[in-house]
Amino acid sequence: MLQKQIRYVLVAEATKERILNSMLDEFHFLDETTEIETTLLIFPNHFSDFTSYLALVSSAEKLLSKQGYDGIYQVASFHPDYCFAGADQDDPANYTNRSPYPMLHLIREESITNALKHYKDPEGIPGRNVDFAREKGLAYMQLLRAACLQE
Questions:
Q1: I need a surface site. Which of 2, 37, 39, 125 has the fewest CB within 10 A?
Q2: Contact 41, 22 (CB under 8 A)
Q3: pLDDT, tens only, 51-62
Q4: What is the model's pTM?
Q5: How many angstroms separate the CA atoms of 110 and 42, rounded?
Q6: DSSP letters of 26-69?
Q7: How many other β-carbons are positioned within 10 Å of the β-carbon of residue 105?
């Protein structure tokens, strides 16, 4: 059964201000629409530079807090060139946060809490994802991401 709990919002003309306003709009939408669990704000034509993108993520997290949404929603970040601090650009682990386009993932905290109840050692999930990516290797992770871009 298709549950339709993910909302996709394309922000074609994505200035920092427009993305942050879209994020606030989505928080309000999620406040009113409890059957939607999460929103992906996707901006395919902007923020291709990873450093500028990280500045946007920082602003998004500050806005979430300023608007009183701490503990209600989380902002997760995904980018085509995602690179963990201290990691080499070619580390397959970076692909755990790489996506076809720059995006912000707005997630209900309650949904995360409920989902993690079904996992043994939920704190270990990120480490297991990194281990999986490194075990599969760079070529595999690149192919996997490339498959997402095929029409």
A1: 2
A2: yes
A3: 999 999 999 999
A4: 0.88
A5: 23
A6: HHHHHHH-TT--EEEEE-TTS--SHHHHHHHHHHHHHHHHHTT-
A7: 17
